[in-house]
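Why do we care about 3D structure at all? Because function follows from shape, and shape follows, mostly, from sequence. That is the central idea of this module. The next example makes it concrete: a single protein chain, its amino acid sequence, and then its structure expressed as tokens.
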Amino acid sequence: MENEDSNKAPVNSENADINQHFKEVKSTENYLSLAGSETNLLSLGKWTKFFAVLNYIAIAFIILWVVYVIIVTLVIGGLAYAVSFAQQVRTLNVFLVCVIPFVILFISTNYLNRAGNGLKRAVQTGDNRSLADGIQGLKSYYALYGILTIIGFCICALFMILAILL
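And the structure:
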């Protein structure tokens, strides 16, 4: 009878190192190996950071728009009495409706930024705490948007029920 090891395909040195690493890790409690995942984590960190920067740019545009609306409303409202009080209230309502999504965007962007920084730092330094911070940022980001999705579905269902009843 042949030896079972002779039937196995040859293993390259990288796989042998990873297998040896996993054997060592099994003896260590609470240790997570990221062997082979560094490039994916680094890429994830870069993309997360990229979207955070895009969101910060969007926030800057929103702030500029709000300042513009406030200035126009004050100038038109203060200089010309042709604009009715109802028009000014409508502008204020639009402003308030935009504040809630702005706050949500700002909070979620901070989560993305934290995640991107943590993931990139974890890959570069090998720091487990940075990895935990990055994953926590992603978890918070997805939890926020999961809650918002559920709220959105509930509002849609409410409107559908109201449409059927009315």
